[in-house]
Specification:
alpha+beta; 33% helix; 13 helices; nine-stranded antiparallel sheet; homodimer
């Protein structure tokens, strides 16, 4: 139980973390509403965040409680019809509050293997049901229509997975808090200042990449990845957070180390080899490879979780093409912790990664105002889902090719060379 | 934190308690949905109840999590407009699931003084807002339109209030569990059998009271209560649970010791003196008296919580008349524990009580099918609220008067004399 960790965390660090989330992450404004999605086991954290939000001037804070046990039990024991029907009240909550301009804080504390052993057909069906029901909300999420931030808080199950040799669950939770504070630059009350510097540094690199106007990337490492990836004509590299349609900056993820864009959906050829386990629908997919031709997955394999990988690629429209390429240095704060987090938010910020599924529309010029057909015409992938996976390594090599055919070494030995 | 109590309860007793609630309380049917309202701090209990419900054949179990801290913080810190607008999604949840025939389990673990110090105007307004928004659901609750059960589970704040001298919160929670199991006849796996006997005994007494066809009751004790209460012509005494419109029996409350009916709304004269503190909107009202003339409150006072009492009577239409008279022996299992529970579900089943506000429509013949105007015409009170308060004592005397003027001693020295 997460509540057990209460004596183990440093309250000052926790307050600094929450201030970072409310001010820099959500950029919460006076009079704005906030929705907090949080595990019931981490109620102590949601309560602190709620108070901080009200102090920042929130007009109302709505709790959207979740519970791993209840979710898993439903998948195991409920009537089969349940997974084809999304709760209308939750759709109403998400639609109406996002229409009213609320901010959304997602506190992730999920057991990476929460759905191990659950019927994958039920998982796939409910994933599609959810995507369809919350299409309006997810549309706002990927186009800056709302300000939102995803963060993590340790749960016992997750901490035990990350630190299996800890003497106790309490120690595992405490160790995970340490890593979270380190990765989010929290300490000595200087998180806001450190994040300003960090964002400026990311911005400079984003500008350089955008100035090159690469037409394609050549991506290779010794793990077996060998990809030729075209980029859309008007692609945009992003990073250092986002700017919402209301003009206010926010950080969709804390931490964030990545600089990302969208591949040309029909222009990816070759093979990618995963270098970290992937958490998909509460199951682990490990030691996997995926091969593309003209952007489309033509074969795949995994030493464990092959069924989940198959479901991911085959069941949801658009999940058989790439929607994101993200560059993260092997020598980055999270990567340097040497910890495998079994959590996409952390692992994706420790490694170069790709995503199957939807591209962020803002990764092509004017994309945030385009409908789905226009996005496809602009060369980026469209899907109701988006699943990151990591393929970074210490010897990652990425070469950018410009319109004139000039080759520029972007990544050498796992780190930026530009 | 309620979760701390986990090692302190006896798992077998807990399972027996939950079985009683699911089978006898809700009478949950295969294929039926269930809504569980529960504090996040008592998640362990909600999880056990969810599993038991699925084992009993529930098609889907929906969680409606609540949290004292978040509720209190909203009242203290949210924008003032919040209290005039009910969350549309929660109304949709309650309306749609009650329309679909779901059962409703309310797990009460609330701190009796959760809203101490909160602006009473906000409490009153939100109470009216809630009553209006959930009118459809509450209508089904009071007319057997759904099967529902209210029970309690100890929270730390509540247990500490009941057992202020306990050595620790853990001990207080453990003591409160003991009292809950005793009061609900849980032990040795025989709860279902004991409840069958208990319900039969209540039924016999209910029949006797109904056969008398009293026209009025004369109620007196040394605490100062002196009431002349007319009863509606076609009044019905109820108790031993209820029968829903689908024909299935259920227990709205566990425990239940009361036999109750509705006073004639315009036929109550005299004064009643409260004999236990009353928990109203998260505040305590203590040492109070209320005087009626022709059914209507004409004066009231309280040594503490007078403002809350004034709000109760004045702010919600219909709360200035009585809607319930309930008979509970001074020599009853809960009363005999000698514990003041600061919880209406327990204290009302340890004492004769009245309620301001709505009568249960089923307390007059055909009432469950009447609209509000018809209920008023039948002589019973109508309100969007209902608040019990205790006035029982060891020397309670109640005399029933029949149509022919014959006087029958119903209660003598606090216990039934018939």
């Amino acid at each position: 139980m997460c509540v057990m960790s209460k004596p183990l965390y440093n309250e000052e660090l926790l307050e600094e973390y929450i201030e970072l989330v409310i001010r820099k992450g959500l950029n919460l404004q006076p009079g704005q509403q906030l929705v907090i999605a949080c595990s019931v086991d981490c109620a102590f954290f949601a309560r602190l965040a709620m108070v901080a939000a009200y102090k920042a001037g929130a007009s109302n804070v709505h709790m959207r409680w979740v519970d791993d046990f209840c979710s898993r039990t439903r998948f195991l024991m409920a009537d089969d019809s349940v997974f084809d029907k999304y709760p209308a009240w939750d759709k109403l909550l998400m639609d109406s509050l996002s229409d009213e301009g609320a901010a959304f804080l997602n506190v992730i504390a999920t057991d990476p293997e929460v759905f191990k052993g659950v019927d994958s057909n039920r998982l796939s069906r409910f994933s599609i049901t959810t995507s369809n029901a919350l299409k309006g909300y997810f549309g706002k999420i990927i186009t800056g229509g709302v300000r939102w931030t995803t963060i993590t808080v340790p749960s016992e199950a997750w901490a035990n997975k990350v630190f299996p040799n800890a003497a106790s669950a309490e120690e595992a939770i405490s160790l995970l808090w340490d890593r979270i504070f380190a990765a989010t630059r929290v300490g000595d009350g200087k998180a806001l200042e450190r994040w300003s510097n960090h964002i400026d540094a990311l911005k400079r690199r984003v500008k350089m990449l955008n100035d090159y106007r690469f037409t394609e990337l050549l991506i290779k490492n010794s793990a077996g990845t060998d990809l030729r990836m075209k980029l859309p004509k008007n692609h945009i590299w992003k990073g250092s957070g986002d700017v919402a349609k209301d003009g206010l900056p926010f950080l969709p993820n804390i931490p964030t180390e990545e600089i990302f864009s969208a591949p040309y959906a029909n222009g990816v050829d070759g093979t990618v080899v995963g270098t970290m386990p992937n958490v998909f629908q509460g199951n682990l997919i490990e030691d996997f490879t995926i091969t593309f031709k003209d952007g489309k997955v033509v074969s795949y394999d995994a030493k464990s979780g092959r069924e989940q990988l198959a479901n991911m690629i085959n069941d949801i429209p658009g999940m058989d093409k790439l929607g994101e390429i993200a560059l993260v240095e092997y020598n980055s704060p999270i990567s340097n912790t040497g910890v495998l987090f079994y959590n996409t938010l952390y692992d994706e910020n420790a490694s170069c990664h790709l995503a199957l599924g939807s591209a962020y529309p803002g990764c092509v010029e004017g994309g945030d105002s385009m409908n789905e057909e226009q996005r496809k015409a602009a060369g980026i992938n469209v899907s109701d889902s988006h699943q990151d996976f990591m393929f970074g390594s210490a010897d990652m090599s990425i070469v950018g090719v410009t319109a004139s055919g000039k080759e520029v070494v972007v990544f050498k030995d796992g780190n930026f060379a530009i």
